[in-house]
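Query structure, 255 tokens:
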């Protein structure tokens, strides 16, 4: 009995050991299985991380290329803006230069036009408009007369009257032409021009003097009767003038 119990006890212990071993093996197998799952999970996670890193790397590279393109575009735009600004400045400068040239041209045109525009002059108490050219020519002829070159003065005054017969200067030009001819002892021509003055401008300031010189020419030509008539007309028409006083004196000496 005791022996049976000993065998039974050994068997029970062996069974217990077997069962513990089986449990240990099962636990080990389960642990190994769990390690494989964890390893696969880790590998999978690592692959995912690597893929994510790869994707991020590609995205970063793409973003970097995009940034480089954007920077290139910005630089290009800056260049365009700078070029546009430079072109605008050049255009503004060109416009300014053109405007200045226009002003200069306009000023030049105005200046040239003024050279041809009539100017207001006053000669022998008479005011009128005269072309710059006729004013210049008349003054040039009178400069010759004042120098005492009566022959040259006649030529200049005749040419002036040929060009400007209806000029406001004409009465004065006729008077001084007559005087130049009288000084050159050409009484006949002098009388013609003095009479032209009287016919053209009866109220001219030099008409009394012209009439007195006509009378002198008539006296020199022995035309006493005609001279007396001219002097009497002078006194009657312009009684308060110096020429009229001189005419009265001559009339008294002609009696």
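Result returned for the query:
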């Amino acid at each position: 009995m005791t022996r049976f119990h000993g065998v039974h006890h050994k068997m029970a212990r062996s069974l217990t050991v077997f069962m513990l071993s089986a449990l240990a093996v099962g636990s080990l197998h389960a642990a190994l299985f769990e390690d494989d799952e964890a390893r696969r999970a880790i590998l999978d996670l690592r692959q995912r991380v690597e893929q994510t890193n790869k994707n991020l790397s590609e995205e970063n590279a793409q973003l970097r290329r995009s940034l480089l393109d954007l920077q290139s575009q910005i630089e290009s735009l800056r260049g365009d803006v700078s070029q546009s600004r430079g072109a605008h400045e050049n255009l503004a400068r060109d416009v300014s230069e053109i405007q200045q040239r226009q002003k200069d041209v306009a000023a030049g045109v105005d200046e040239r036009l003024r050279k041809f525009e009539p100017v207001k002059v006053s000669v022998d108490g008479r005011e009128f408009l005269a072309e710059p050219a006729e004013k210049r020519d008349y003054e040039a002829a009178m400069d010759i007369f004042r120098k005492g070159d009566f022959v040259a003065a006649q030529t200049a005054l005749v040419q002036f009257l040929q060009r400007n017969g209806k000029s406001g200067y004409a009465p004065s030009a006729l008077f001084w032409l007559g005087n130049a001819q009288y000084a050159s002892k050409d009484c006949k021509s002098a009388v013609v021009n003095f009479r032209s003055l009287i016919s053209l401008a009866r109220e001219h300031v030099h008409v009394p003097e012209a009439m007195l010189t006509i009378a002198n020419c008539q006296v020199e030509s022995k035309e006493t009767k005609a001279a007396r008539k001219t002097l009497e007309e002078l006194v009657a028409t312009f009684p308060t003038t110096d020429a009229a006083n001189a005419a009265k004196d001559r009339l008294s000496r002609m009696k």
